[in-house]
Amino acid sequence: MASPNERIKNESRHLRGTLEESLHDGYTGALREDDTQLSKFHGFYQQDDRDQRSERAKRKLEPLYSFMLRARVPGGVVTPEQWLMVDKLGRELSGGSVRLTTRQTFQYHGILKESLKPLIQGLHSALLDSIAACGDVNRNVLCNTNPVDSSLHQEVYRQTVALSEHLLPNTRAYHEIWLDEEKVADSAEPIYGDTYLPRKFKAAVAVPPHNDVDVYANDLGFVAIAENGKLRGYNVLVGGGMGTTHGDTATYPRVASCLGFISPEQMNVVAEAVLTTQRDHGNRDQRKNARLKYTVDRMGVDAFKSEVEKRSGVTFLPEVPVVFTQQGDRFGWVEGVDGRDHLTLFVPEGRLIDKPGQAWLTGLRAIAQVHQGDFRMTANQNLIIAGVPKAEKAKIEALVAEHGLNVPTTRLRENAMACVALPTCGLAMAEAERYLEDFVAKVQGLLDEVELGDQDIVTRITGCPNGCARPFLAEIGLVGKAPGRYNLFLGADGRGLRVNKLYRENLTETEILAELKPVLSRYRAERNADERFGDFVVRTGVVKEVKDAQVDFHA
Question: How many angstroms separate the CA atoms of 464 and 522, rounded?
């Protein structure tokens, strides 16, 4: 029996549903039930403030409904002019906050229903949109920020944007509802069909040796192969994904498998073939098992590859060996081959808000008013002020210092990441964003105590096992189980090539720290030269290596 979402999509008239009627219903701050699913295809989720839920229920009030809207920004690149609009809408319609996401874009929280249309129209005026930023479609396509080799990045980025455009839904529903485009005859969906995909679909493009987009965590990945600074083609990856369900051994995180190598001009046709194979073979009965990773495992990698070759007309060449060295960002100033400079700022929890000592919105607005390059959001929730001419570097530095945007940090903190979780995410079982700072500080205390000091250990927290901050690719991963309780995972490799494994279940903070201390102490005493923490715990048998997640993750 198909899931209810399949009925909703099939009856939606290509994502129109009754969204317009829901928007004009002034008796509630919510949407109609079916429309809460369709709204995701337009880029936003309905939420409520869970901190206030109980008190409002006592007062016989409906939940304090609001919306989270995520933009579609392929590769995370925006112009200074676009940034000024992003800032303006955040201040005026989203409670004075903008959040950088793990999908290399920005999102707004706390939007009231009546503010949705003005916000989307504001984005449109800056040539930005939220089409397909959520929902059972291809979402925002990630691209390595790679500020050093600007010419290679420009070529890869151009293809990333073209891929995002190619995989957009064909329906005009977004333009009719939000941009007041004249209604036309119902449009067909040549790629997606009437019921779109079984589940969400994520794509990324990486440029070795930096895996800052966690390319192996995506349904579809392209690893750029360069020779002498020129793009030769891509290794194609399929079947990555993070989401699991607590206690359900039929769900698991998975790193992607490589199908082989293609030329640059074959990217879009191969991507479409992967997507349509998932469209036709994905599980539409059980959404928990509907992601592409389960389709690949059910069909087998070789059979999946053959189907993609048949649909695309492309024969894969052998995979080209690549080396990835890290999955984090490079902070501070980096000079590009074009002589321009790029400044990566560490943004705590990706939250851009004015607070004492750190005036993020005001500072970035001042920078955008004079900046001659662009801004690049990273998949680690940080921000690059890119393409700064030498003559303008001192001016940018002065504005960063004036607004407190050089945040003191440690290597542990720089490589830590969290999802939003409470109070707005309806799926969260525990804190994440609001807890990350405290937790990392306490782990740093452990590192200092066992004389490890400033260590680069990838640490991530999510409020639930859906894995939005990719905790299963962290050397230390916390996944929310209940308020104040987490499952502790250890053993990813710090390069994004291996998922971790459950070490202890349902722990409080005190218990987590007590479990970590002896392992960190052993790491200090027994590690090999340059051995990462995640590799150490696997080598010494603290946790078993996960080679095949379908078999090993729950074993």
Answer: 29
3-state SS, 243-256, equals CCCCCCCCCCCECC
Rounded distance between C-alpha atoms, residue 259 and residue 318, angstroms: 8
Nearest-angstrom CA–CA distance, 353 and 369? 18
- Regions of the chain short of the pLDDT cut 50: none
- The Cα 148–Cα 297 span in angstroms is 37
pLDDT in tens, 288-321: 999 999 999 999 999 999 999 999 999 999 999 9
Q: What are the start-end ranges of the H helices in 262-338?
A: 267-281, 292-299, 301-312
How far is it, in rounded angstroms, from Cα 226 to Cα 208?
Answer: 9
Q: What is the distance between the alpha carbons of residues 218 and 240, in angstroms, rounded to a whole number? A: 4
User: Among 260, 151, 152, 242, which residue's Cα sits nearest to residue 199?
Assistant: 242
Q: Rounded to 5 degrees, what are φ and ψ at 498?
A: -145, 135
Structure confidence at residue 1 (pLDDT): 73
Give the global pTM: 0.96
Residues forming the active site: 70, 139, 200, 202, 419, 425, 464, 468
What sign does the CA torsion over 105, 109, 111, 113 have? positive
Exposure letters 166-199 (e unless 16+ CB within 10 A, then b): bbbbebbbbbbbbeeeeeeeeeebebbeebbbbb
CA–CA distance, 168 with 13 (Å, rounded to integer): 17
pLDDT digits (tens, 9 = 90+) for 247-303: 999 999 999 999 999 999 999 999 999 999 999 999 999 999 999 999 999 999 999
